[in-house]
Specification:
Elements: H1 2-21, H2 26-44, H3 48-73, H4 84-102, H5 109-127, H6 131-150, H7 154-178
Helix pairs in contact: 1-2, 1-7, 2-3, 3-5, 4-5, 5-6, 6-7
Amino acid sequence: MEAILNAIVIIAHVLTVLFAAKTHRWAWLFSLLSCGIMAYFFAHDRLVMSSIYNAYGAVMAVIGFCTWRRSAKENERSIRWTNPLWTLLAVAALTAVIFLVDRHVSNHPFIDSACTAMNIAATFLLVRKDVNAWLLWLITDSFYIVLGITESTPRYILIYGVMLALAIFGTIQYIRACAHYTFLKGTGKRNK
């Protein structure tokens, strides 16, 4: 059963990234499926905050779907690239708060807290179609691969290896799309 769930997560995440890279709202439907299964995996492995993040991810998938559906109706495809300093400050603050809660529960409280904080910020940024979301996922996926190696958990190595490759793809797609838009104040208006 675990192998089937691993395959479903990988397929759902591949489809999530492919649709998200094209700013298509179907990304969020596959994200909902992936988050549900990953919440189960993390809870089973006592990575409590990562499990909670995936529950948050499921809620954000619904919000993302609705937001992108509305922007599709308004013919808005703008991809933003906001100041990464605000993203880093938000991640640092979230990591500190989550660590205080998670330090007695998780097997790896700092990594679990940091990855959860980055995932929360990245999911929020992806709803806003921000390049920084993909950059955070490059870091988070790398951490989970290291966690999989240190814990001898092949599931994480496999899933997050694929997710890292997909994050690279998403980053490239968003940066290319962003080249067609101005960076000034994240307006997303086309250069003339």
